[in-house]
Amino acid sequence: MATVSMKKERMKGTGIRKGRAAITFNILGYSFVGLTALICLLPFIFMISGSFSSEKEILLHGYSLLPREFTLEAYSTVFRFPEKIIRAYGVSVFITAVGTGIGLFILTMAAYVMSRQDFKYRNVLSFFFYFTTLFNGGMVSTYIFYIQYLHLKDSILSLILPGMLSVFNMLIMRSFITAVPSALIESAKIDGAPEFTIFIKIIMPLLKSGLATIGLFMALHYWNDWYNAMLYLNSEEKYPLQYMLYDLLNQAQSLARIAAQSGVPMDNLPTNTLKLAMAVVATGPIVLLYPFVQKYFVKGIAVGSVKG
Amino acid sequence: MRVHFQNFRKELKKNKALFLMALPAVLIVLVFSYLPMSGLVLAFKEYRYNKGVFGSDWNGLANFRFLFSSGVGWKITQNTIFYNLINLVTSQGLAIIIAVIISEIKVIPYKKITQSVIFFPYFISWVIVGTFVYNIFNYETGLLNTIITGLGGEKINVYSIPWVWPIIICIFNSWKWCGYNSVVYIAAVTGVDAECYEAAEIDGANIFQRIRYITLPGIRATVITMLLLNVGRILRGDFEMFYQIVGNNGQLFDATDVIDTYVFRSLTTSANLGMTAAATFYQSVLCFIIIMTVNGIVKKIDKDYALF
Fold first, then answer.
1. A–B: how many Cβ contacts below 8 A?
2. Do residue B28 and residue A106 have CB atoms under 8 angstroms apart?
3. Which of A39, A84, B190, B277 is most buried, with most CB under 10 Å away?
4. Do residue A138 and residue B284 have CB atoms under 8 angstroms apart?
């Protein structure tokens, strides 16, 4: 009797302690996560708000959460000469579409071959790709090789080819393919289907979510790339959107620095709000697509983080 | 050798289609990753553009001597390792905390919204992040100075205070990667055996004990993998981050110059290319040695935790 009631007492005790711990955790945890989320969100709010503010307000009072004086001035400046922006958008869309389309196909084929248990050299092949993540030529030799021997200077191909195949993506794709039952391949082979047909007709349709995931990884990489443009491009008409934005910001900043030194009034220079409006324009597609693509990224990262 | 070759021919005949399917990826990686490695010999040469990589004259270890006797080599190595270590600790630490908390959140909409928002900075290009940094810290209209003057203080020029930059870089690095890394860890937490939690529940463990004794040990393998991946890149700086946050700001080079930014600068201003090539050679080789050593040690201790 006594032990039972004692046990009950103890249970009640831990119950209360458990309850208290849970409350403490919830208060701390929820606010910590909430605060982090807020910090992740704030810069974007300032960016959007700033892009709708008037230049004068920003110079006088700085940035604010909501525009003090709502205006579309910056956007109308951005689109006053739309050719430049439309062209940069076009370049970005082009390299994203072409690079992702071709790259995804090539990458998936290679990943498929690596996943085939009956292919004798699959490990050699995996190692061939994997080795490049352990060792590479470094920035100088790569740059000189691309320019002097592949003649990529000022070529649009310099934005597409170098980053086309990420070994990390390839390995994730292999994990996706491994999930396809190999009996399907074998039965198709017995029916006499050629390898390539098996890949196109049987494997590809079963890989929809893998293709979507890796495709989005690649598309994001292409869309956000400015580094290759900075290294290899000279002519402005080939600039992708991100690099055009960078170029614009950079010009504005160095102009501002020169102006500050020489005492020229700031009003005549490319403006703060203009830059923010440009940033909004360049980020726009990602924000719009984000609700739809986020789950694929989460899935891809989860698959990628499982070793094997 | 002969036997190998015969085997290869046999396999080639048997799986011709598979060889062909892997071929495009093999060629791309060969041309864009392996062939540029040959440029590493530049570290031991006095490069002349007209003579090309292979025609330039050898100059032994002169490039390395220059690099380290000028003090540049040590400084950029030190900075690179320093930034990688603080970024590793802060961004992984924060991601683990966020992942553990988010996994415990029971209010589903709150969980989904915070996770999406925290993940969002990953999708933004560093160019946009660079805009944020500039708009927060610039002297005239920056958010920071707006707040300071709003509170009645004196404006500060952050760009002339080197010691704050490690903190700024660290914060933005965590900000950008926290969501991505926490997705990795959330996936790991999801993989922890649910029975463990039930058993802990029955034993009366409170939430903190559950995290301490089940969740954290449960994600150990993932943590080790992430650490290994980062240690393997300890001599590589996230070039895009450094370049966009700090820019070409001479005042801050002492505090913020990492190997990659140094190399990039001398590549674009074509200063002493031999010295730069020496820096990348040393970076590539040392990185390779470090990752092989660390992975070897981990493999000895527990095979399951090794990368390969």
1. 281
2. yes
3. B277
4. yes
Judge if A139 and A53 occupy the same domain. Answer: no
Instruction: Let me know if residue A24 belongs to a domain.
Output: no
Residues 149-208 on B with a CB inside 8 Å of A are 150, 175, 178-180, 183-184, 187-188, 190-191, 204-208
The whole domain housing A50 covers 40-71
DSSP label of B235 = T
* Contact residues, B window 260-289, toward A, CB-based 8 Å cutoff: 260, 263-264, 267, 273, 276-277, 279-281, 283-284, 287-288
Any idea what the Cα angle at residue A92 is, between residues A289 and A176, rounded to 5°? 55
- B137 occurs within a structural domain: yes
Could you say which residues of chain A have pLDDT below 50?
1-6, 8-9, 269-270, 308
ipTM for the assembly: 0.92
Q: Classify B45 as helix, strand or coil.
A: strand
Rounded-to-integer distance, Cα A152 and Cα A79, Å: 31
Question: In this structure, is residue A276 part of a structural domain?
Answer: yes
Q: Any chain A CB within 8 A of the CB of B24?
A: yes
Same domain? For A65 and A140 the reply is: no
Q: How many CB atoms lie within 10 A of CB A242?
A: 24
Q: Name the pLDDT band for B99 (thresholds 50, 70, 90).
A: very high
Closest among B245, B252, B265, B62 to B170, alpha carbons compared: B245
Closest-CA residue to A276 (of A39, A40, A52, A42)? A52
Q: Does A143 lie at the interface with B, CB-CB under 8 angstroms? A: yes
CA nearest neighbour of B56 among B73, B39, B74 = B39
Q: Average pLDDT, stretch B153-166?
A: 90
* pLDDT mean across residues, chain B: 90
In this prediction, residue A1 carries a pLDDT of 42
Return mean pLDDT, chain A.
Answer: 86
Among chain B residues, CA nearest to A163: B32
B39 in any annotated domain: no
> Is A290 within 8 Å of B207 when comparing Cβ atoms?
no
Residues A138 and A216 in one domain: yes
Residue of B nearest to A26 (CA): B105
DSSP H/E element including A14: helix A2-51
Strands (E), chain B: 45-46, 57-58
